[in-house]
Structure formats: C-alpha cells, structure tokens
Design a protein that fits this description.
about 260 residues, alpha+beta, 8-stranded antiparallel β-sheet, 4-stranded antiparallel β-sheet, about 35% helix, globular
C-alpha cells in the first residue's frame, strides 16, 4: 500500500482553499452587478407604475360633460355648481350652469351668447336663438326647428339673498324618444354655490305621473310655472291641452289641481 505524503495533502488543501477564495473574491462583483441591475429594474418598474397611476388619476378626475338630457339626469343630483362672477343675475347663474354642462348643445349655444356672441348661433350645424329677459330673471335658448329642443333658465328671489334657480331642458329628434327634465338649485350668497334641490324635482314627477304626455313653461313674466297636459290623438278632434298652475308663494310651490283648457 502506497503512503501518501502529508506535505502533498496539505499542499493540495491549500491550493483548493486558494481557488475557493479566488471564486469568493470574484462572486461579490457578480452579486453587485446583479443587485445593480435589479435596482435599475425596480426603479424602471416603479416609474412605469407611477406613470400608470397618474394616468389613471387624470382619467378619473376628468369627468366628461353629458351630451344629452339623460346623461345630465344621471349626475346632476350629486353636483354643486360654484359661481365665479361677483354679480348674481340671470346671466351669471345661467353661465355657471352652462359651463358645468357644455356637452349639451343648447347649453353650449347659450354659453356662446353669454360670452359675447350674437343671439343667433350654431352648434354642431344646428342653429339656436337666445331670448333674454334680464329684468325678469329669464333666459332661453331654442333650436330653430319645429321639434322643441332647448334650455330655459329663470330664478325666484328668496329671503336672505338666496335664490331658487329653475332649469327646463327639452331634446327632440325624429329618430329618438323625446327627453325633458326640470332641475332646481338653491343659490347661497355666502358660499356662492348652487345646490341641487332634488325634492322639488321629485314633487314634479309625482304631479305629472298620471299624465300620458306633458310639458311645461318657466315664467318669462310672473312667478308661476305652467304645466300642460296633452291628451287624445294629435291632429284630431279628440286632442286637447289642459293647463295647470304650479304656484310660487315666495318660499315654495303649490300645485293647483284645477286645470283649464
């Protein structure tokens, strides 16, 4: 049996340890490089995630204006409106509303007029005409067609400088079902805000629930709202219009059920 020289064994162990140490000296460089790449990847990933988050925030904060009455009906109860103008009159109130809902074409046309354009203006190839009764707190914009489409705005004075603003909107076309909506807002002079008054709108819905077909007129003169009920077939002997009055007493409306033709 051959004897192994202890010196050779020790030499071999030292050589092995030296090689291992050499590898350990090289490994930290590879680890640092890998860590650096991971850090770089993390920064890039964080940047992408932050950009995505900002993009999502911008998309969330940017709420498009409804383009029809149905869209306005869906959101108006939750949206207060702030006046930027120090003057409180029908022009400033109407402008604040139209700036909030410029996607609806009649509102866009009225906004053009309130910003200094003529009483006759066109939006999306449709011509509109504006009627302003500033002394009576009344303004209306109507499409120059036989089909009723437009926005009417007026206000009633209340105590303490508060005002009740009414907005009546109609939208009619030859291809779609007619849309109509009445909105109410309470104006607070302390905060310069218009707050939706949903209870009044709900009351109108209860009044007109029994009507098969109806419309209304906000007052260009006087204080009362006129509600029209249509019955029978149009363009026939059975067709008739019954008028009802929704009376304003200075603080609230009261419906008179005694209609007249």
């Amino acid at each position: 049996m051959k004897k192994i020289c202890p010196i050779l064994v020790i030499a071999g162990l030292m050589l092995t340890m030296a090689c291992g140490k050499k590898e350990q000296t090289l490994n930290p460089d590879r680890d640092l490089s890998s860590a650096g790449q991971q850090a770089k990847d993390t920064v890039v990933a964080d940047s992408i995630e932050m950009a995505d988050s900002l993009a999502m925030a911008d998309t969330t904060d940017t709420v498009p204006s409804p383009r029809d009455i149905h869209g306005i009906r869906e959101v108006w109860r939750e949206r207060t409106i702030t006046l930027d103008d120090d003057k409180v009159n029908i022009q400033s109130l109407a402008k604040a509303f139209c700036m909030h809902y410029p996607g609806f074409s009649p509102d866009s046309a009225l906004l053009d007029y309130l910003n200094g354009k003529s009483k006759t203006t066109a939006v999306e190839e449709q011509e509109y005409v504006v009627t302003l009764e500033a002394v009576n707190g009344y303004v209306a914009v109507e499409a120059t067609t036989e089909l009723p489409t437009g926005t009417t705005i007026c206000f009633w004075n209340k105590r303490g400088g508060r005002k009740l603003m009414g907005v009546w909107m109609e939208q009619t076309s030859e291809t779609e079902k007619p849309q109509k909506q009445l909105l109410f807002y309470d104006y607070d002079p302390q905060t310069k805000t218009l707050t939706p008054q949903a209870k009044l709108v709900d009351e109108l819905e209860r009044i007109t629930k029994k009507f098969k077909s109806w419309s209304l007129r906000l007052p260009a003169e006087g204080k009362d709202i006129e509600i029209m009920e249509f019955s029978g077939e149009e363009s026939s002997d059975t067709y008739k219009c019954t008028y009802y009055t929704w009376k304003w007493n200075g603080a609230a409306f009261h419906f008179d059920p005694n209609g007249h033709e």
